[in-house]
Amino acid sequence: GENVEQHPSTLSVQEGDSAVIKCTYSDSASNYFPWYKQELGKGPQLIIDIRSNVGEKKDQRIAVTLNKTAKHFSLHITETQPEDSAVYFCAASKEGYQKVTFGTGTKLQVIP
Amino acid sequence: SAVISQKPSRDICQRGTSLTIQCQVDSQVTMMFWYRQQPGQSLTLIATANQGSEATYESGFVIDKFPISRPNLTFSTLTVSNMSPEDSSIYLCSGGLASTDTQYFGPGTRLTVL
Lengths: 112, 114
Description:
The structure holds two protein chains of two kinds. Chain A is an all-beta fold. Chain A contains no helices and eleven strands. The A-B interface holds A 32, 34, 36, 41-46, 49, 89, 93, 95-105 and B 4, 29-31, 33, 41-45, 48, 92, 94, 96-98, 100-108, 110.
């Protein structure tokens, strides 16, 4: 089955700096790569996703890149703000509505 | 998009008892899933809830411990049976919408077993 690895497990940045989280996956059949943000006491919230026919996608301060050959994908957050502090999960699946395999999570702390 | 609600939001239970968690979606989702998130950990898929038939369980999860029902396209239940303290976790349901090719998560049920 699919295996998703995520690094780093914790990340502290100064407000205004950039944060980068990296993931690798094992199943070449995976085509959909969502990123979820989970705040304390809440369920995961989809913040951005990328599909295998796209190499990069950007939404305001958030961007994702995908290298399907290397089975790598990354989340980039620019101009970080304290409200960006949360746990971020990368994930992979064959289709967006299908079951999702999660990475191990990254706890991001943005220091004011 | 889809909005997913779960009941209860949290519960404290005694070992040996069972708890049924309800998941309601405001759209007719294609797929529904149940995940477990142990304290400080990632999400692990328990099973796919199939409408009108037995759920499909992932390795390490069995129907006797986690019976699941999905009587229609918008509702599912997960029962945690014969609970032990090791079952203390957050249980989350999700709905996959084929029309948007996206999956949405509920807020979770925080279960503590004493």
